[in-house]
Design brief:
Blueprint lengths: L4 E7 L7 E6 L14 H19 L3 H7 L7 E5 L20 H5 L1 H12 L16 H14 L5 E15 L3 H9 L4 E4 L2 E4 L11 E14 H5 L1 H21 L3 E7 L13 E7 L44
Helix pairs in contact: 5-8
Length: 319
Amino acid sequence: MSNKSIIVTGAREHNLQNVNVEIPKNKLVVFTGLSGSGKSSLAFDTLYSEGQRRYVESLSSYARQFLGVMKKPDVENIDGLSPAIAIDQKTTSHNPRSTVGTITEIYDYLRLLYAKVGHLHCPNCGREISTQSVDQIVGHISREIQNRLSGQQVRLMILSPVVRDKKGEFTSLLQSLRKRGFARVRIDGQVYDLNERIDLFKNNRHTIALVIDRLSLTKQQFRDSEKFKNFKTRLTAAVEESLKQAEGFLIVSFVNDASLDFPDKPKEMEDVLFSERLACSFCGISVEEPFPLLFSFNAPAGACETCSGLGSLLQIDVK
């Protein structure tokens, strides 16, 4: 069997007159010619048909009974042929989000493959990402706080992401959180008091993070070993509770509002994601566990933020 090309010998399907052809693999090959010269007969009725027939024959007898017997095309021999997929020109779409992968549904299997067996690597240092313990997470947060203590104090919230990019009103969830004694949530980047009325559009995607604790630390408190020890104890308890509520995830949101006090509803926040499951032990960068939608350019979770997954930008040419 040839590994570099597909060799067709004696193709006589329809109007093909005993054609012999060698087609290189791993290249874009185009069949051109006049109408009726045999382009479709060679591509669809010979190559694709034989590729499908061989694939079906490789399946179990149980599976073949549902697919039926496929007719062998009129050709002496085809060497180097792999299972084939054909897309007829009449079935193509002008939708820019429609690709060969989406039309053939191969893209669905690729997304699942990457999500389940892929190995994650740190975007900063390139090392493979592994799980983190509570002590390691607290250590990374403490170092981050120390790096930010150039000003008078550092203010932060420990958030537990209980809903991530899902549609719904989540009325029952918010009521449950309030009954369990929690006071605040952050929904789509805005902090709400759970005692106030919160109306969400059920057809929109929402991200809801439960506010576990709000902490602040000054330079003086950091230098006082006893006060810093108490701060770290409270931080550890908040981290453990957040990981418990969000199944191994937490968000540390540093509040950058100009106010000296801790604002009830902060406006300027800088988030750092931590995960009990997946994090770089060298850089401290945490990532979500991969899921199929993360690899979909048609979903907000996986689409490029610049082009929204289209691969191009619509801009006005002023020239």
